[in-house]
Specification:
37% of the residues lie in helices and 19% in strands. By secondary structure, it is of the alpha/beta class. The strands form 3 sheets. It has a 6-stranded mixed β-sheet with strand order 8-7-6-9-11-10. β13, α12 and β14 form a beta-alpha-beta unit. The longest helix has 15 residues.
Protein backbone atom coordinates (compact mmCIF):
# COMPACT_ATOMS: atom_id res chain seq x y z
CA UNK A 1 0.00 0.00 0.00
CA UNK A 2 1.24 3.47 -0.87
CA UNK A 3 2.40 5.37 2.26
CA UNK A 4 -0.23 7.83 3.42
CA UNK A 5 2.22 10.74 3.21
CA UNK A 6 2.64 10.10 -0.54
CA UNK A 7 -1.14 9.88 -1.03
CA UNK A 8 -1.69 13.23 0.70
CA UNK A 9 1.17 14.90 -1.19
CA UNK A 10 -0.31 13.80 -4.53
CA UNK A 11 -3.80 15.01 -3.62
CA UNK A 12 -2.68 18.47 -2.46
CA UNK A 13 -1.20 19.58 -5.78
CA UNK A 14 -4.24 21.84 -6.34
CA UNK A 15 -2.64 24.29 -3.91
CA UNK A 16 0.05 25.02 -6.49
CA UNK A 17 -2.35 25.55 -9.42
CA UNK A 18 -3.49 28.98 -10.54
CA UNK A 19 -6.87 27.76 -11.82
CA UNK A 20 -8.88 24.66 -11.07
CA UNK A 21 -10.47 23.53 -14.31
CA UNK A 22 -13.28 22.08 -12.14
CA UNK A 23 -16.98 22.67 -12.64
CA UNK A 24 -18.88 22.70 -9.34
CA UNK A 25 -22.67 22.50 -9.61
CA UNK A 26 -23.56 21.57 -6.01
CA UNK A 27 -21.67 21.33 -2.69
CA UNK A 28 -22.18 18.72 0.04
CA UNK A 29 -20.46 19.21 3.37
CA UNK A 30 -20.07 17.45 6.67
CA UNK A 31 -20.35 19.81 9.64
CA UNK A 32 -18.20 18.79 12.64
CA UNK A 33 -14.46 19.05 12.05
CA UNK A 34 -15.14 19.93 8.39
CA UNK A 35 -17.11 23.13 7.78
CA UNK A 36 -17.02 23.84 11.53
CA UNK A 37 -13.92 24.59 13.57
CA UNK A 38 -13.18 22.35 16.55
CA UNK A 39 -15.14 24.68 18.85
CA UNK A 40 -18.20 24.26 16.56
CA UNK A 41 -17.96 27.81 15.14
CA UNK A 42 -17.89 28.75 11.44
CA UNK A 43 -14.91 30.76 10.24
CA UNK A 44 -15.27 34.00 8.31
CA UNK A 45 -13.69 32.36 5.26
CA UNK A 46 -16.26 29.56 5.27
CA UNK A 47 -19.13 32.02 5.73
CA UNK A 48 -17.79 34.06 2.82
CA UNK A 49 -17.79 31.01 0.58
CA UNK A 50 -21.42 30.26 1.51
CA UNK A 51 -22.28 33.81 0.43
CA UNK A 52 -20.47 33.22 -2.84
CA UNK A 53 -22.34 29.96 -3.47
CA UNK A 54 -25.66 31.73 -2.89
CA UNK A 55 -24.68 34.52 -5.27
CA UNK A 56 -23.70 32.03 -7.98
CA UNK A 57 -26.84 29.89 -7.48
CA UNK A 58 -24.88 26.81 -6.38
CA UNK A 59 -26.82 24.79 -3.76
CA UNK A 60 -25.05 24.07 -0.48
CA UNK A 61 -26.17 20.86 1.25
CA UNK A 62 -25.17 20.24 4.87
CA UNK A 63 -24.58 16.47 5.11
CA UNK A 64 -24.25 15.51 8.73
CA UNK A 65 -24.63 12.75 11.25
CA UNK A 66 -26.54 15.32 13.30
CA UNK A 67 -30.30 15.51 13.53
CA UNK A 68 -31.90 18.32 11.54
CA UNK A 69 -32.64 20.47 14.60
CA UNK A 70 -28.96 20.29 15.58
CA UNK A 71 -27.53 21.79 12.40
CA UNK A 72 -26.00 25.24 12.94
CA UNK A 73 -28.51 28.07 12.56
CA UNK A 74 -26.08 29.99 10.34
CA UNK A 75 -26.16 27.07 7.89
CA UNK A 76 -29.89 26.31 8.00
CA UNK A 77 -30.82 29.98 7.55
CA UNK A 78 -28.28 30.72 4.84
CA UNK A 79 -29.73 31.38 1.37
CA UNK A 80 -27.26 28.90 -0.16
CA UNK A 81 -28.78 26.05 1.86
CA UNK A 82 -31.76 24.54 0.06
CA UNK A 83 -31.62 20.90 1.16
CA UNK A 84 -30.09 18.97 4.06
CA UNK A 85 -28.86 15.41 4.50
CA UNK A 86 -29.11 14.42 8.15
CA UNK A 87 -28.65 11.39 10.42
CA UNK A 88 -25.82 10.12 8.17
CA UNK A 89 -28.03 9.93 5.09
CA UNK A 90 -31.20 8.61 6.70
CA UNK A 91 -33.19 11.71 5.70
CA UNK A 92 -33.05 14.32 2.94
CA UNK A 93 -35.11 17.42 3.73
CA UNK A 94 -36.26 20.36 1.65
CA UNK A 95 -35.37 23.23 3.97
CA UNK A 96 -37.92 25.63 2.50
CA UNK A 97 -40.94 23.35 2.78
CA UNK A 98 -39.54 21.25 5.69
CA UNK A 99 -40.67 18.16 3.75
CA UNK A 100 -38.69 14.93 4.05
CA UNK A 101 -38.03 14.07 0.41
CA UNK A 102 -36.18 10.82 1.04
CA UNK A 103 -35.94 8.48 4.03
CA UNK A 104 -34.05 5.29 4.85
CA UNK A 105 -35.01 4.59 8.45
CA UNK A 106 -34.61 1.84 11.05
CA UNK A 107 -37.39 -0.63 11.83
CA UNK A 108 -38.72 -0.36 15.38
CA UNK A 109 -38.35 -4.09 16.03
CA UNK A 110 -34.67 -3.97 15.06
CA UNK A 111 -34.04 -1.02 17.39
CA UNK A 112 -35.74 -2.85 20.25
CA UNK A 113 -33.76 -6.03 19.61
CA UNK A 114 -30.50 -4.08 19.66
CA UNK A 115 -31.37 -2.29 22.89
CA UNK A 116 -32.07 -5.61 24.63
CA UNK A 117 -28.54 -6.76 23.76
CA UNK A 118 -26.88 -3.48 24.80
CA UNK A 119 -28.93 -2.36 27.81
CA UNK A 120 -26.38 -3.49 30.40
CA UNK A 121 -23.29 -2.15 28.62
CA UNK A 122 -21.59 1.13 29.72
CA UNK A 123 -22.75 2.96 26.61
CA UNK A 124 -25.28 5.56 25.56
CA UNK A 125 -28.26 4.58 23.43
CA UNK A 126 -29.32 7.67 21.50
CA UNK A 127 -32.44 7.68 19.34
CA UNK A 128 -32.80 10.08 16.40
CA UNK A 129 -36.42 10.75 15.50
CA UNK A 130 -38.41 13.69 14.18
CA UNK A 131 -35.27 15.70 13.49
CA UNK A 132 -34.07 15.50 17.11
CA UNK A 133 -31.72 13.33 19.17
CA UNK A 134 -32.90 11.80 22.45
CA UNK A 135 -31.21 9.95 25.29
CA UNK A 136 -32.48 8.73 28.63
CA UNK A 137 -31.47 10.69 31.73
CA UNK A 138 -29.62 7.81 33.35
CA UNK A 139 -27.27 7.30 30.40
CA UNK A 140 -26.86 11.04 29.94
CA UNK A 141 -25.56 11.28 33.50
CA UNK A 142 -23.14 8.41 32.87
CA UNK A 143 -21.88 10.18 29.75
CA UNK A 144 -20.59 13.02 31.95
CA UNK A 145 -17.96 10.59 33.21
CA UNK A 146 -16.91 9.38 29.75
CA UNK A 147 -13.62 10.45 28.24
CA UNK A 148 -14.46 11.54 24.69
CA UNK A 149 -12.39 13.31 22.01
CA UNK A 150 -12.17 17.10 21.86
CA UNK A 151 -15.35 19.10 22.19
CA UNK A 152 -17.60 16.12 21.41
CA UNK A 153 -18.80 15.39 24.95
CA UNK A 154 -19.82 18.99 25.58
CA UNK A 155 -21.77 19.10 22.32
CA UNK A 156 -23.44 15.73 22.87
CA UNK A 157 -24.57 16.62 26.38
CA UNK A 158 -25.97 19.88 25.08
CA UNK A 159 -27.64 18.45 21.99
CA UNK A 160 -29.41 15.35 23.33
CA UNK A 161 -32.96 15.86 24.56
CA UNK A 162 -33.22 13.90 27.83
CA UNK A 163 -36.20 11.84 28.87
CA UNK A 164 -37.10 9.76 31.92
CA UNK A 165 -37.52 6.01 31.79
CA UNK A 166 -36.23 3.19 29.63
CA UNK A 167 -35.18 3.48 25.97
CA UNK A 168 -37.23 0.33 25.40
CA UNK A 169 -40.44 2.14 26.32
CA UNK A 170 -39.37 5.26 24.44
CA UNK A 171 -38.60 3.32 21.25
CA UNK A 172 -41.89 1.42 21.50
CA UNK A 173 -43.75 4.74 21.49
CA UNK A 174 -42.18 5.96 18.23
CA UNK A 175 -43.51 5.79 14.71
CA UNK A 176 -40.22 6.57 13.00
CA UNK A 177 -36.52 6.12 13.81
CA UNK A 178 -33.89 7.83 11.65
CA UNK A 179 -30.86 6.32 13.30
CA UNK A 180 -29.40 5.19 16.62
CA UNK A 181 -26.18 6.21 18.31
CA UNK A 182 -24.04 4.56 20.94
CA UNK A 183 -20.94 6.08 22.54
CA UNK A 184 -18.56 4.99 25.27
CA UNK A 185 -15.49 6.21 27.07
CA UNK A 186 -12.11 6.07 25.31
CA UNK A 187 -10.57 4.22 28.25
CA UNK A 188 -13.19 1.45 27.94
CA UNK A 189 -12.85 0.97 24.18
CA UNK A 190 -10.90 -2.31 24.24
CA UNK A 191 -13.54 -3.90 26.47
CA UNK A 192 -16.72 -2.34 25.09
CA UNK A 193 -16.19 -2.32 21.33
CA UNK A 194 -16.20 -6.13 20.82
CA UNK A 195 -19.42 -6.44 22.84
CA UNK A 196 -21.13 -3.69 20.86
CA UNK A 197 -20.00 -5.18 17.55
CA UNK A 198 -21.30 -8.60 18.62
CA UNK A 199 -24.71 -7.04 19.33
CA UNK A 200 -24.80 -5.47 15.86
CA UNK A 201 -23.89 -8.79 14.27
CA UNK A 202 -26.55 -10.69 16.22
CA UNK A 203 -29.37 -8.39 15.09
CA UNK A 204 -27.92 -8.26 11.58
CA UNK A 205 -30.07 -5.36 10.38
CA UNK A 206 -27.69 -2.40 10.41
CA UNK A 207 -24.92 -0.55 8.68
CA UNK A 208 -22.59 1.02 11.22
CA UNK A 209 -20.28 3.99 10.81
CA UNK A 210 -18.59 6.56 13.02
CA UNK A 211 -17.61 10.21 13.12
CA UNK A 212 -15.11 9.82 15.97
CA UNK A 213 -12.95 7.09 17.45
CA UNK A 214 -15.26 5.79 20.17
CA UNK A 215 -18.85 5.22 19.23
CA UNK A 216 -21.15 3.91 16.56
CA UNK A 217 -23.70 5.61 14.35
CA UNK A 218 -26.26 2.92 13.58
CA UNK A 219 -28.24 2.98 10.33
CA UNK A 220 -30.62 0.86 8.31
CA UNK A 221 -28.90 -1.30 5.69
CA UNK A 222 -27.99 0.68 2.59
CA UNK A 223 -28.02 4.05 4.33
CA UNK A 224 -25.12 6.46 3.92
CA UNK A 225 -24.34 10.05 3.05
CA UNK A 226 -23.12 8.76 -0.31
CA UNK A 227 -26.44 7.10 -1.13
CA UNK A 228 -28.29 10.28 -0.12
CA UNK A 229 -25.95 12.42 -2.24
CA UNK A 230 -26.60 10.26 -5.29
CA UNK A 231 -30.35 10.35 -4.68
CA UNK A 232 -30.46 14.14 -4.32
CA UNK A 233 -28.33 14.71 -7.42
CA UNK A 234 -30.68 12.47 -9.41
CA UNK A 235 -33.71 14.25 -7.93
CA UNK A 236 -32.32 17.66 -8.93
CA UNK A 237 -31.07 16.50 -12.34
CA UNK A 238 -27.46 17.36 -11.44
CA UNK A 239 -24.60 15.09 -12.41
CA UNK A 240 -22.76 13.81 -9.34
CA UNK A 241 -19.58 14.33 -11.36
CA UNK A 242 -20.06 18.06 -10.72
CA UNK A 243 -20.74 17.60 -7.00
CA UNK A 244 -18.09 18.69 -4.51
CA UNK A 245 -18.17 16.91 -1.15
CA UNK A 246 -16.13 17.58 1.99
CA UNK A 247 -15.54 15.35 5.01
CA UNK A 248 -13.13 14.16 7.68
CA UNK A 249 -14.37 10.85 9.14
CA UNK A 250 -15.54 7.33 8.33
CA UNK A 251 -19.17 8.42 7.91
CA UNK A 252 -18.04 10.73 5.08
CA UNK A 253 -16.09 8.18 3.03
CA UNK A 254 -18.93 7.00 0.77
CA UNK A 255 -20.03 10.59 0.18
CA UNK A 256 -16.56 11.57 -1.00
CA UNK A 257 -16.43 8.51 -3.25
CA UNK A 258 -19.88 9.29 -4.71
CA UNK A 259 -18.99 12.87 -5.60
CA UNK A 260 -16.95 13.76 -8.64
CA UNK A 261 -14.97 16.18 -6.49
CA UNK A 262 -14.43 14.41 -3.18
CA UNK A 263 -12.31 16.48 -0.80
CA UNK A 264 -10.84 15.24 2.48
CA UNK A 265 -9.97 17.70 5.19
CA UNK A 266 -6.31 17.85 6.22
CA UNK A 267 -7.42 16.69 9.66
CA UNK A 268 -9.28 13.72 8.16
CA UNK A 269 -8.61 10.13 9.17
CA UNK A 270 -6.72 7.69 6.98
CA UNK A 271 -9.77 6.13 5.29
CA UNK A 272 -11.04 9.53 4.19
CA UNK A 273 -7.64 10.76 3.04
CA UNK A 274 -7.28 7.68 0.84
CA UNK A 275 -10.85 7.80 -0.50
CA UNK A 276 -10.85 11.45 -1.58
CA UNK A 277 -9.77 12.89 -4.92
CA UNK A 278 -8.28 15.95 -3.18
CA UNK A 279 -6.97 16.85 0.27
CA UNK A 280 -7.41 20.41 1.53
CA UNK A 281 -6.25 22.33 4.60
CA UNK A 282 -7.62 21.42 8.05
CA UNK A 283 -10.95 22.61 9.43
CA UNK A 284 -9.04 25.01 11.71
CA UNK A 285 -7.47 26.55 8.59
CA UNK A 286 -10.81 27.01 6.75
CA UNK A 287 -9.84 24.22 4.38
CA UNK A 288 -13.30 23.97 2.81
CA UNK A 289 -13.57 27.67 2.07
CA UNK A 290 -10.04 27.82 0.70
CA UNK A 291 -10.60 24.86 -1.62
CA UNK A 292 -13.91 26.23 -2.96
CA UNK A 293 -12.35 29.65 -3.45
CA UNK A 294 -9.81 27.97 -5.71
CA UNK A 295 -12.34 25.66 -7.40
CA UNK A 296 -14.74 28.50 -8.23
CA UNK A 297 -12.01 30.79 -9.58
Amino acid sequence: MTPLSEVVAKKTQWMKSESSGLYVNIVFSDMDDTLLSCDKSISEKNLEILDRLAKQGIPFVPASGRALSLLPHEVLAHPASRYAITADGATVTDLRTEEALYTSHIKKEDALALFELMKDLPVTFDVFTGGRAYTDNARREKMKLFRLPGHHKEFMLRSRTPYEGSPKDFIASLDDIERLGSYWSEDADAYVRPLVEAAFAEVGAFDVTSSMGVGAEILAHGTSKGTALTWLCDYLGISSDTAAAFGDADNDTEMLQSAGIGVAMGNGNESVLRAARFVTYTNEESGEGRFLEWALS
